[in-house]
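Researcher: Next sequence.
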Amino acid sequence: MHAVTFNYCHISFNTVWTKNENRDLGNLLRNANEYQLPRVKIEVTRRMPIYTLLDEWNRLGDARFHRNRETFEITVKNILMGSNPSSLHTLSVMD
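Model: Next structure:
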């Protein structure tokens, strides 16, 4: 934020972060010298890999309870290749 405050950053960042004192709120604020960060929509976080990884893990069902990596990989490959059609609808990695 030092680069934004002292105008070291690129000019395109001038409108991304604004101070609370520059917003038209109509009230005096204790944190007028602090920056207002833009809010992120929940749809953006749902596309992040960490969110989709956990979502796909929960969709694996009983396949996620294997004790070693080798049997887990075999099971996931079988699901993706279609040898276990009943589990195919629960795994949507190909979306």
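Model: The chain is about 40% helix and 5% strand. Helices lie at 2-5, 42-46, 49-59, 69-81, 85-88.
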